[in-house]
Structure prediction request, 411 residues.
Amino acid sequence: MNVEITGAKIFLRLPFGILITETQVNMWIIMLAIAILCKWLTHNLKVKPEGKRQVVAEYLVNMSNKFVTSNMGDRFKNFSPFIGTLFAFSLLCSLSGLLGMYPPTADLNTTIGWATVTFVMIVYYKIKANGLGGYLKGFMEPIPVLAPFNVLGEFSTPISMAIRMFGNISTGVVISTLVYAALAWLSSLALQWLPGVLSGIPVLQLGVPAILSIYFDLFSGALQSFIFCMLTVLYIAQASKGD
Amino acid sequence: MPESLEFLSLNFWSPLMAIGNLLILFLIVKKFLFKPVNDILDKRAKEVDSIYSDAEDMRTEAKMNKDIYEEKLKNVKAETDLMIKSVTERAENRKEEILKEAAVEAENRKIKAETDIKLAKKKAVDNIKENIVDMVIDLAQQVVEKEIAEKDHESLIDDAINKLGERV
Prediction:
């Protein structure tokens, strides 16, 4: 019995250490799917909606607009497409695990990248609200001795966001790998009296992983996407208020 | 089997690619989902606004028309009142005229009748006068045939009868 838990498969090694891994490819597939979905949903829009398609499109856009404006205020309405994209992308990345793909969000590289975007925005809005001097002075409070901790605290925001999402989604991958392996082992144990190939059929793998998948892929995936977006929205809104 | 990354691994390019992918997808979603849908929502809001303002315009116009018609109706009423008044006045005048004419006519007829009556009376008196003269002469003849001569006494009797006629 040999269970191996690895990250994404590497498909291609390009110069300068660029890796084309399963994460990238799956992301591209999901991006394509989202692009096609958007194009399909907004095909032939009418002022008086005629089909369910337009209702769905309007519902999604309104939901995103409402989420952003209710948490950040009306002046951040422009953020709605970004937050909507972030949510849809991370959700579908996590859910791709259901199709047997390697979820791109189970790769720390992905979540670090996205959290960096959030971090840059937070810093940008903090500087915009307080000025560069005000922002840097903020690290000296309440006393200058605490500056190293404040800097740590600043960076802990994106790191905790990245690791939170990575941890939750990759846990699902790990657990489902372990469960599959365990169930295969259990069923071969239970069926070892059968002759030949029959004993190798992992019957116990049927059903049980699906229940776990509902929690780890569906629930956890949706929840983590929501948390990631919520934190992004709240941090940026807070940063823009100034101290 | 292709080689894999370590379960927990970091490299320089992959996060950048994740960021790039996120930004590209952001542009796609913005262009293909949010922009058209927001445009449609705006358009709908504008249309609804214009429908409302049209309705408001129409209401104002209807109210204006109503006022105009009410004013007109009022004028019509005043006009009819005036007409009725003038007609009544005319009728009244005509009535007065007719009554006056009738009165004049009646007066004329009365005068004529009175004249007629006077004439008739005079005629009757003359008639009676003559008859009485004859009768008295006749009587007198019979009564005083022998004593009085017809010629002597005729003027005497005429006087008496004339006095009688004046009294009649």
Q: What stands out?
A: Residues 121 and 236 of chain A are 7 Å apart (CA to CA). The helical segments of chain A are 22-41, 52-72, 80-95, 108-137, 147-190, 208-241. Chain A touches chain B through 56 residues (CB under 8 Å).
